[in-house]
Design brief:
GO molecular function: nucleic acid binding; zinc ion binding
Number of strands: 7
Number of domains: 2
Order of helices and strands: EEEHEEEEH
Structural class: alpha+beta
Protein name: Zinc knuckle CX2CX4HX4C domain-containing protein
Oligomer: single chain
Shape: globular
Pfam families: zf-CCHC_4
Organism: Gossypium lobatum
Distance between the termini: 33 Å
InterPro entries: At4g02000-like, Zn_knuckle_CX2CX4HX4C, Znf_CCHC_sf
Amino acid sequence: MKNGPWNFNSHLLILHRLKEGEDPLIVQFHWVDFWMPIHDLPLGFIFETVAQQLGNFIGAFIEYDVLATQLGYKRIIRIRVRINVRKPLKRKKKRVLPNGESVYVRFEYEKITLFCFLCGKLGHGESFCPIRDHHPRQEYVFN
């Protein structure tokens, strides 16, 4: 459970450890914990409080990898976040520095499986995206 997320044939396996007395027929399999490197953090923003804010923006912050602090010189931190897999994944966030300058921090998802860059959701690729069904001839630009 702790070393996940797990996948089979490029499809995400969502696991849940049942608690005593929990009804397995009503368990919702919507949440997965991901380790995430966050890139392009401005110098001076590599703190656990910033990691918690970014983790809660992405999903629900779980943990800050203090052993990855050596990546700070590359402006990278690593966090563990619980994500609702029914929602699109977030790829970046704008941060405004004290001097008024705007920068974007980028999110990566470790051990990510089948992912659609059109709608941002897990479980299918661009070829099978419902968005493509509605606008089949449109050219898409990825940001």
